[in-house]
């Protein structure tokens, strides 16, 4: 972790190791006690495919299971 400061134009420069690890694009999330930088993938769709590559069920199967679990929790 390192400290960084805004320049006179309000820009923030991230350390090279952070940019190399997470990339050059970030979504800024405002929180009650500060801000969070969330890296944005160059190709968000490809990033999602990689994230869920090990899921063997279809979206319909996952949706059906979630619906059943919700109904069970609600006490049908």
Automatic annotation (TrEMBL):
Residues 45-72 form a coiled coil. It comes from the Archaea. Keywords: Coiled coil. One of its GO terms (molecular function) is DNA binding. Residues 4-45 form the SpoVT-AbrB domain. Transmembrane segments: none annotated. InterPro entries: SpoVT-AbrB_dom, SpoVT-AbrB_sf. This is SpoVT-AbrB domain-containing protein.
